[in-house]
Amino acid sequence: MPCFRCGARQSDPVRGASPWKRGVRADRQVLVCPACQRSEDWTAALDRCVACGSTALICRLGEVECRACGHVRQARPPDRSGDLVTSGAPGLSEEVAAALSRVLGRGLLG
Fold first, then answer.
1. What is the rounded end-to-end Cα distance, in angstroms, of the chain?
2. Does some domain include residue 74?
3. At the top level of its lineage, which domain of life is listed (predicted)?
4. What is the value of pTM for the model shown?
5. Considering the domain boundaries, does residue 62 fall inside one?
6. Mean pLDDT, each 10-residue run in order, the chain (110 residues)
7. What DSSP string runs through the chain?
């Protein structure tokens, strides 16, 4: 899953806690990369708990739960009209094709 702000993808994890943060936006789980976390307003685009206002939310099994106060609510059905990433970053399939092309030294069809 890419960063919802810039489209960066996670690399292989290093031992220990991940520097990537989770959040919920439009009732969907999203990730925020370390570079975007340096922005002052990175939490402004995340959903907030209706009970306490925290952005420490997780989305699972059709529910959104606040990790700060424990409030649970039903998630809205997902809007499939577009991706949350608006940066124009390539999708995973394009990244894989480009990596294969670099490694193999030729196009996928050549």
1. 30
2. yes
3. Bacteria
4. 0.65
5. yes
6. 88 82 93 91 92 94 94 82 52 75 67
7. --BTTT-----SPPSSS-S-EEEEETTEEEEE-HHHHTSTTTTTTS---TTT----EEEETTEEEETTT--EEEPPPP-TTS-S--S-PPPHHHHHHHHHHHHHTS-TT-
Say how far apart CA 63 and CA 59 lie, in whole Å: 6
Give domain status of residue 5, yes or no.
Answer: no
- Give the list of residues 6+ apart from residue 91 with CB closer than 8 angstroms, or none: none
Domain count for the chain:
1
Domain limits at 44? Answer: 21-84
d(CA 56, CA 23) in angstroms, rounded, equals: 6
| Structure tokens given for 62 | 């059709």
